Structure formats: C-alpha cells, structure tokens
Amino acid sequence: MTGDILKTLPVRRGHFLLESGYHTDLWFNLDALFVAPMDMMPQVSALADLLRPYSISAACGPLLGGAFLAQAVASHMGVHFYFTEPEPGKTDDDLFAVKYRLPVELRRRITNERVAIVDDMISAGSSVRATASELAAAGASTVVIGTLVLLGNHATEYFADRGVPVVALTRTTFNLWSPSECSLCRTGIPLETP
Fold it and tell me: DSSP label at 89?
C-alpha cells in the first residue's frame, strides 16, 4: 500500500524549474495529498515507524506539504510539531538559494529538540536543507530526514555527508540537471515554473 503512492499522484512531463534551481523532466502534483487525511494514515503510520528508532522529540516540516505530513507524524508519535516557511524573495539564481525560517515563537521553543525533518517528497532537497540550517541556527538537532517519496540520491548524499540518515517509504530514480547542464534547455523546450 505505501509503495504505491507514486502511482496515485498526478504527474506531468515537460521541463520544470525546481525550488532548488535544478531542472527536471517530471512534476508531481502533491496539492491534494492531504485532502482526505484519514486516507493518508497508513503512510503516516509507516513513516512514523521508520522514524521511531531515532528517538525524536519533534517533527518539523517545510510549508506546505511537508508541514502537513510533519503535523500528522507528530500527532501519531506524540511528539512536538514545528514548521518552517519560505523566506520571501529569492535573491539570486544559484542552486539552493531559497531559505526557510521558523516563526519567531517556534524558533524560541525548538532549542534542544531532537528533530525529524519531514517532507512529502524530496528530490534535490532544497526545503529540507534550508530547514536543517534554520534548525541548527535555532539550537535544535536534526537527527533524521523522513519522506514519503525520495526522488534520486541528491538529498541522501548531502545528508550522509553530515551524518544524518534519510528514510523513505518509496525511492525511485529522478532526473535533475543544473541549468548549465540541462539537455532540455539545449533542445529549446520551454522551462516551466510550476
């Protein structure tokens, strides 16, 4: 049941700009994932089971989808819930330029928490990376990353270098290209920002 989540998601093919700055040829629409929260409970429970060995005291997710999943996981596990939100106005075109911030009161409360950063789907991992930076600046420890779907290995490699495991219900390959290496750009396929 949990491994079939990719089959249930609407997907588009094309040329897409991801938040990380990378380009890809697939876009998964996650907007309706939590319309029926009870339908997601098997996946929430399965993800909570993967996170349980890390003795977390909190789950934190980037808005939007990651926060919904993090709140469901926190409720299921009986731990604290936090969220980060994207800082307005990306200032440059570099990879991973986006920043996520904790609201002021949450930033004050998260100090010394052992946090699982939770997101619904992770490819390059820009929102998760930015959330981890924000948690560290606030005095919390990221002990594990959890996701329903892990696309490719970019995020896993990044967090492995920092000693943070990544757990996922489903893993699959995924094409990511930096703008300078994108074959879709070279063939003239228009770039979409979903």
Answer: S
- Give 189 or 4, the one with higher predicted confidence: 189
- Residue given tokens 């924000």 in the structure block: 134
Selection from 100, 154, 107, 93 nearest residue 132 by Cα: 100
Mean pLDDT computed over 64-79: 94
Query: Which letter, b or e, does each residue of 17-37 get, where b requires 16 or more Cβ atoms within 10 Å of its Cβ?
Result: bbbbbbbbbebbebeebbeee
Per-residue pLDDT tens over the stretch 143-192: 999 999 999 999 999 999 999 999 999 999 999 999 999 999 999 999 99
| 68 in Cβ contact with 61 (< 8 Å) | yes
Higher pLDDT, 40 or 84: 84
Q: Give the whole-angstrom CA distance, residue 179 versus residue 18.
A: 11
Q: Helix/strand/coil (H, E, C) string of 155-189?
A: HHHHHHCCCCCEEEEEEECCCCECHHHCHHHHCCC
CA pseudo-torsion sign 140, 145, 151, 153: positive
CA nearest neighbour of 37 among 81, 82, 5, 68: 68
pTM value is: 0.92
CB-based contacts of 136, cutoff 8 Å, min separation 6: 142
Q: Residue 64 contacts by C-beta under 8 Å, 6 or more apart in sequence?
A: none
Q: Is the pLDDT assigned to residue 47 strictly greater than 80?
A: yes
Measured distance CA(13)–CA(55) in Å, rounded: 39
